[in-house]
Write a structure and sequence with these properties.
The complex is a heterodimer of chains A (368) and B (257). Chain A is an all-alpha fold and 368 residues long. Chain A has a domain of 242 residues. Chain A has a two-stranded antiparallel ribbon. In chain A, a hairpin with a 2-residue loop joins strand 2 and strand 3. In chain A, helix 2 packs across helix 12 and helix 5 runs antiparallel to helix 11. Chain B is of the alpha/beta class. Chain B has a domain of 173 residues: Rossmann fold (3-Layer(aba) Sandwich). Chain B has ten helices and eleven strands. In chain B, the strands form two sheets. Chain B has a six-stranded mixed sheet, with helices on both faces. In chain B, helix 3 runs parallel beside helix 6 and helix 5 packs antiparallel against helix 6. The longest helix of chain B has 14 residues. Chain B starts with 5 loop residues before the first strand and ends in a 17-residue tail after the last helix. The chains are: A mainly alpha (368), B alpha/beta (257). Chains A and B meet through strand 1, helix 8, helix 9 and helix 10 of A and helix 2, helix 3, helix 4, strand 7 and helix 5 of B. Strand 1 of chain A pairs antiparallel with strand 7 of chain B. Bound molecules: adenosine-5'-diphosphate (ADP) and magnesium ion.
Amino acid sequence: MTTTTPSVTSVPLLERFRVPGGFVLGAVLLLGVAPLALSDFRLSLLAKYLCYAIVAVGVSLAWGRGGLMVLGQGVFFGLGGYAMAMHLKLADAAATGETLPDFMQLYGTGDALPWWWKPFANPAFALAMTVLLPMAVAAVLGFFVFQRRVKGAYFAILSQALAAALSIWLIGQQATTGGTNGLTDIQGFFGYDLNDPVNQRMVYFIIAAVLLVLMAIARQLFVSRYGELLIAVRDSEERVRFLGYNPANVKLVAYVVAAGMAGLAGALFVPAVGIISPALIGIVPSIGFVIGAAVGGRASLVGAVLGAIAVAWAQSTLSDAFPAAWTYLQGLLFVVAVGFLPGGLASLGVVLRKRRTRTTPIPTGETA
Amino acid sequence: MSGEGLTVRDLRVTFDGFKAVDGVDLDIRPGDLRFLIGPNGAGKTTLVDAVTGLVKATGSVTFGGEELLGKPVHKIARLGIGRTFQTATVFEELTVLQNLDIAAGSGRGPLTLLRRRKGVPESVTKALETTGLTDLRDRPAGVLAHGQKQWLEIGMLLVQDVKLLLLDEPVAGMSHDEREATGALLQRVSEDHTVVVIEHDMDFMRSFARSVSVLHAGKMLSEGTVAEVQADAKVQEVYLGRASEPEPAAVPVPEEA
Ligand SMILES: Nc1ncnc2c1ncn2[C@@H]1O[C@H](COP(=O)(O)OP(=O)(O)O)[C@@H](O)[C@H]1O
Ligand SMILES: [Mg+2]
């Protein structure tokens, strides 16, 4: 069992350099070309899109490879975003000699900070929470959901309900969460003034670097034995169970990792955009998080990331001009991508190639 | 003799009051190549489902001294019981090699899982040879011919290192040559495994069975060697007396064994 014979498949030269080459190209574009070519304003928009792309990396893993219709990523994005924003609001208040964030002075009932806000004054704790909190929630939720074999549409609806519940709860707690407005008007980021364009650029670089690192991690998961197992679970969960695995655990890992990525994206969104609010994490944004991945190709990492950036760009460009039309277009994109091109644009090449050259049938080999 | 024996006592499976398996006793000795036959709807698949934990059942099923009823599917699989399904289910998007590698790996730890597969486990190489799929190892399983998929499934059970194989109609839809090849494969496999084959095809059964059990309407009708079962009047009645039913296509012929 432990002895192995070396793999004899020789990978063509071009193929071997495709992935590292693509990675370097992406790094050059994101860290070199974009900052040089784009104005401060456009670069900060790109920073926001890249946050959506980070969510899409997780979506690609959980949905594309794991078949989990993660239609509630807003929950994890929100948990990460609020964890970060709570710390930044406390730091902003401390910088002006206050003990309470501005909105609490307006709406708050007492003058004491709620107990669950207190630990977020510690930057290390808050940073850890941006990732650990979403992962913990996903772990608990996923444990029950996957053990009970909730899947398909039921899982998607449950995810959506959760996103709705969190945003409704936040709206109801105006005194401690800022309610509908959310946590806004964030000034500083760990001592750096966010109104300074130089610091905004720094935030962009952090986001771009995080995206690249998470893509590398996701890529490793994709090509690992776990990645193969995840596809197997997606395509035939029952069969995997008969091989002696518990598919619930396999799915749980993908779900929790995707939640952590969404949390980190939410956390980075806050300094990039200056706000986190219930409207950014509810049902509609949760669907928005997966549309980019669906359009670009959810099973392809690069496809999902480019799709997320493109859809986010289209949204901010079109939704200002035609706010009503965008909602319909978004729905249409989702349906077309999921229904007619499940591999997304990334699979277009393969689909077309298949049309032209019929796949050669395999000769039936006799058993030796 | 290698492999492990299976003991079934008073097994009952009920679907909304309908008794699909109705008090079955079954003893499979280690190393047996047992054929389980019976008309459509007799409860053959349900019996295998009950043994492998897929449906709830009462009674007792023991394997290597362990009670199986009540255990979840993946735990039963880890005790060394593997099965195939009536319709071949392989992971179509993964290659033959990846399919086998996954089957070999239920005991892998997290660190192994998170790394890329380097090289091919020896058990996988062996299973590729046994099933004759070596040349196809890098093809996606989805493009395999029907028979090759069944062989791949059997190969997956081999690398899974099961002691007992439960095969649900493995040669259904196969050409004559494929059947012969599969029969030879089963005989090779049964040299160091216990094998139970659900099958309709009487020619196939005659050529390869070491012992036969006949199930009818959820009950065990007859058991014995091929000749004994074919000579059994009850078996003849079940197969011959319901000639209008299309299912028992091949009728056992008593005078030939
Ligand atoms: N999940 C189920 N629910 C209800 N009835 C079932 C179910 N599975 C099988 N049956 C019934 O149980 C009987 C035995 O089925 P099965 O074990 O598949 O027969 P066989 O494999 O011998 O052809 C059939 O009458 C079938 O309709
Ligand atoms: Mg059946």
